[in-house]
Design a protein that fits this description.
Elements lengths: L1 H39 L5 H10 L1 H26 L2 H7 L4 H25 L1 H17 L18 E10 L4 E10 L5 E15 L4 E15 L6 E14 L20 H33 L7 H6 L10 H71 L4 H27 L5 H24 L7 H14 L1
Antiparallel strand pairs: 1-2, 2-3, 3-4, 4-5
Helix pairs in contact: 1-3, 1-5, 3-5, 3-9, 3-10, 5-9, 7-9, 9-10, 9-11, 10-11
Length: 468
């Protein structure tokens, strides 16, 4: 038994690794085309660029593993069927369920691994990747001096050089013109025959060491004050904000940067907040009705015990004035009550929407790993019925299922975020549909039903082209 299982699992390892590499490469290329230009324009080191792509590998792995399981099942079982090994196993008394069993068991272990990965590794990697992307976006591009081009990227400084020779650490310049607008009441223009430029990484300064310089200074408040200074050697320090990447830390985490336990705790906090706000609404309504509706009528005995108070009669003109102000006060109180209730209901609606979004992410951490089992149930019988083990057939069939599965996930997530369907339905409906189809295909393969007749399809295509 274990010899056969080891053989079946061994035949899945190669296609799984190959499919994993190809799918990961596709995701990486998409990320490279989308982000590499923006990253390179910031003048980052090669190590930081590698770190950025390494941190994004976590979500790529979480999505690529179920896809690779489907491709591996299609290729392995397609080769078994194409080489008549399935027929030989069945002739030896081995059932289809027994043949599929080791791959199903292995997919269950793989699903548990992905659940652990999605709750312990993926949130931290997503958090660090977001922080790094924010730091990269905040960093200024590298200061680039071009001969004959006025550089205006530095605040308060315009720099023009006629000749430039660059080395890894220092740039040597000739015929330099610097316009300094750092002081509002002064206009400075500096000319130099030559100089060199380097960056001080400790304090974020660009140091310009000029030789044979001449400075012209004019006070804008008094044009008669003009100064000309020559120097054989002059040093200028220019502050370059965000010139070097500053790594930041943040305790805030988005929904994809949290584990399922963290999100469930947040959902429970939101539910407690929603309950307290409903109680507050009832308190507002109760206080309002208590203010305007009469209380319990005193009994005759209570009235006899109460002493009779002599009140001074209210003048007629004051009584009319009080009666005229009463409706306005009541109207304002009603309007205030409506605003209080509306404000609380808006907060409750936002909290409920946040709970939907969080629960979608919670279910996603379990539904995508469960897809490993679902894809084995689909890929194994499809591979047997297709009787092909090459990559083209496996890739073509896999693409159709990928499209159906991920479209269901994305569409379900959008509907759940808008509170149209429940988060459970949004994230698990694709597994239920594809899983039911997989069970149906397994039953068909047990009864030796041919699901895909490639020879018939090829003949029909040839007839179609011959007629045309």
């Amino acid at each position: 038994m274990f010899i056969l299982w080891r053989y079946i699992i061994k035949e899945h390892v190669g296609p799984f690794v190959f499919a994993m590499c190809v799918i990961t490469l596709v995701f990486l290329l998409n990320l490279v085309f989308r982000e590499l230009g923006r990253i390179l324009s910031r003048g980052l080191s090669f190590g930081l660029i590698l770190e950025f792509f390494f941190l994004n590998m976590a979500w790529i792995i979480a999505l690529a593993v179920p896809m690779a399981v489907l491709v591996a099942a299609l290729m392995a079982f397609g080769r078994f069927s194409g080489d008549s090994e399935i027929t030989a196993m069945k002739a030896g008394g081995v059932s289809i369920l027994y043949i599929i069993s080791p791959v199903v068991i292995l997919s269950i272990f793989l699903a548990f691994f992905l659940v652990w990965f999605n709750n312990n590794v993926l949130p931290d990697f997503n958090h660090r990747a977001r922080l790094l992307a924010t730091d990269i976006a905040r960093k200024r591009p590298t200061i680039s001096l071009e001969p004959g081009v006025m550089n205006k990227s530095l605040p308060n400084f315009n720099i023009l050089v006629e000749e430039l020779h660059e080395t890894p650490d220092t740039s040597y310049i000739k015929h330099v013109t610097i316009i300094d607008n750092s002081e509002k009441d002064k206009n400075k223009t500096i000319f130099a025959q030559s100089g060199k430029v380097y960056l001080n990484k400790e304090n974020g300064l660009m140091i310009m060491l000029l030789f044979d310089s001449e400075m012209h200074e004019l006070e804008m408040s008094d044009m008669t004050h003009y100064r000309r200074v020559t120097a054989p050697k002059q040093k200028i320090s220019i502050a370059v904000p965000d010139m070097f990447l500053q790594r930041s830390e943040s305790e805030y985490r988005g929904d994809r940067e949290k584990s399922s336990r963290m999100m469930l705790d947040e959902v429970n906090e939101h539910k407690a907040d929603i309950l307290s706000r409903y109680k507050r609404i009832f308190q507002f309504i109760d206080a309002h009705f208590t203010r305007y509706l009469p209380g319990p009528v005193d009994t005759l005995q209570q009235k006899k015990q109460q002493p009779i108070k002599k009140t001074k009669p209210i003048p007629f003109w004051q009584e009319q004035k009080s009666a005229s102000l009463q409706p306005a006060r009541i109207k304002n109180d009603h309007r205030r009550l409506k605003q209080q209730i509306t404000g609380e209901l808006n907060v409750i609606e936002n909290l409920e929407r946040a709970n939907y979004i969080l629960m979608v992410e919670v279910h996603k951490k379990y539904s995508i790993p469960f897809a490993c089992i679902v894809f084995v149930l689909v890929g194994a019988p499809l591979g047997i019925m297709a009787r092909r083990g090459n990559l083209a057939v496996a890739g073509g069939i896999s693409f159709g299922f990928f499209l159906l599965y991920w479209a269901s996930l994305i569409g379900g997530e959008e509907l759940a975020d808008n509170q149209i369907i429940s988060p459970f339905t949004a994230m698990w409906l694709a597994n239920v549909i594809v899983g039911a189809g997989g069970v149906y295909l397994v039953i068909h393969s047990i009864h030796e039903a041919t699901f895909i007749r490639w020879d018939t399809i090829a003949e029909k295509i040839k007839k179609l082209f011959s007629k045309s």
